Amino acid sequence: MASIGVLMLDTHFPRIPGDLGHPGTFEFPVRYHRVPAATPERVVRVGDPALLDLFADAARALEREGVGAITTTCGFLARFQADLAAAVRVPIVTSSLLLVPLVARMLAPGRAVGLLTIDAGALGPAHLRGAGIGPDLPVAVAGLEKQGAATFARSILEDERTLDVEAARAEHRAAARRLIGEHPEVGALVLECANMPPYRLDVQVVTGLPVFDITDLVRLVQASLRPAPAGGGSGGPLPR
Fold this sequence. Notes:
- The chain is α/β, with parallel strands linked by helices.
- The chain is built from nine helices and eight strands.
- The protein has a four-stranded parallel beta sheet with strand order 2-1-3-4, sandwiched between helices. It has a four-stranded parallel beta sheet with strand order 6-5-7-8.
- α7 (165-182) packs parallel to α8.
- It is globular, with a radius of gyration of 18 Å.
- Residues 228-240 have low confidence and may be disordered.
C-alpha cells in the first residue's frame, strides 16, 4: 500500500523524472489524486480560495484510501497548510516552503535562505505565513517567470504539452546565479516549485550551496511512517 498520497493539480504538461508528479521519482509507491479544475493559473496566479474545499475533499479521499501522509504538487498551496492539516488526521505537507524555518536555523546569524520560485510576483505573505516563515526569518526570492524566455514557467503555468528540458536547466542555473549575485548573504536554497527537483543539481553546481526541495520533505515524512525493523531499529540491540 502507498504510504504517501499526492494531491495533483489538474495539468497536462510533461512531468520528468524527479518531478513530484512523476511515478518514478520515489523509491516507494505513492498514490496520486488529481484535483479537478485545480489549474496552475488558479493555484499560483489567482490563489482562488474556492480551491480549498476541492483540496480538502481530495485529501480526505486519500486518507480513506489508507495513505499515512499527504503532499501536493504545488508549493503555492502553503497558504492552505493549516486548513488542509485540519481537514484530515494524517500529516500533510503542502509545500517545500515548510522547510525554510528549519533551513534558516541551520545557518549562521546574518545568513538568509534563498527561495527559487516559479513566479516571484505571485509568491506573497500569505504563502510565507502558511509555511511558518515569519519576519524573523531572512529570505531572498528569485523567480523564473522572467528568466530568459521563461520556458520553464510558461510550460508549467500555461500547461503546455511540451517542455524544453535543456532550456529549463539553463534558466534554473541563471536564476540561481542571479539570486546569489544579488544576495550574497544566502547560505542555502529551497526550491519552492514541486516541478523544480529535476534541476536541483544544476542549482547546486552553480551556487556551491546546500539545496533543498519538496522530495526531501516527502522522504523525511515517509521515513517517519516506516515501521522499525525487528531487533530495535537499524543498529541492532540497544547497548547495556
